[in-house]
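User: I'm writing a short report section on ligand binding and want a predicted complex to refer to. Could you take this sequence and oxa(dethia)-CoA and write out the structure as tokens? A short remark afterwards would be nice.
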Amino acid sequence: MKSFMTQGAKILSTGSAVPDYSLSNNQISEIVQTSDEWIVTRTGIKERRLLTGVNQSIVDLAVLASIKALDKISMNPSEIDLIILATSTPNDLFGSASQVQSKIGAINAVAFDLTAACSGFVLGIVTASQFLQNGSYRNILVIGADTLSKWIDWSDRSTCILFGDAAGATIIQACSKENNSILNFQLNTDGHYANYLSILYDHKNAFNPFLNLYQGAFRYLSMNGKEVYKFAVSQVPLSILKCINSLNISIHDIDWLLLHQANERILTAVAEKLSINTSKIISNLSKYGNTSAASIPLALDEALQTKKISNNDIIVVSGFGAGLTWGTVIIKWNEF
Ligand code: UT7
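Assistant: Sure. The structure tokens for the complex follow:
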């Protein structure tokens, strides 16, 4: 990575939103053949929130999380220059970020979606920091939001136990180079294994015989859980090591490990591979399951609310998932 930094970037505020409706493991065991014991032992998940309202979408969650982040610092939405909505479940294939822009009244903001599944938030933060560190923009709203419950096959016990819906938002602001808190990043993609985790376009569903073409429809989420597990546990530690080595810091300097909340066993395995004490793992997936692009900002917001994270703490943040995509961003926490 080459840096052309003319100024710094720091996270100024966070906010998050989850639907009211909670689905427990025991409730899922009434739909498919599973048990609370199996789900907790294999994943660490106890319950997840689902967006159930007919007229509710990803946009409602993203708007709520964004307003909370704005309100925390009494920022007028018109001060936002750019909105990046990391999501793989938009309510409009052309993108949902512009709906968020309009609903929160960010009248001066450019807005676009970023599709990178569970790595979306990490990619969003890195993208935002480029615009800030090169002096293009001053305030950027990065949202990670997903409603995978809408794309799950609720008769497939290997996937329906895992996912929940949520949104998390961060406001990142330009600052002096000395106060820069987005210290480094390391990103990867390997499309050879795209079939391990996908929500595929299904051309068989909608053939138009008059025009001899196929029209849009998507299948349910499908995942090779075992392979994704092996990929995460082997590749995420390497990404983190590359990132900290090129920053010339050591494993001992890490205060918090904030990984995509996919599976408690993955969080522990990554920490153990890196010899990071498991007490440094930030985890809230027992309450929310895997919320895809929302999982990292949701856990970050919660860790800040509970005052886990202190000024100057070094947080290693890693996302991984479909694509396959994975990457790390290292944040030095500057209190806002
Ligand atoms: O967000 C993107 C990133 N995604 C991930 O990181 C997910 C990574 N993968 C995982 O977290 C794990 O692979 C899972 C939690 C999805 C599955 O755990 P596992 O320990 O890899 O289980 P498995 O797929 O190897 O299945 C073991 C057994 C199988 O039965 P047999 O073949 O041994 O008789 C499955 O049929 O468990 C069975 N099984 C279940 N049993 C009860 C699979 N799902 C369930 C279930 N309840 N829900």
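A remark for your report: The two ends are 28 Å apart (CA to CA). DSSP finds ten helices and 15 strands in the chain.
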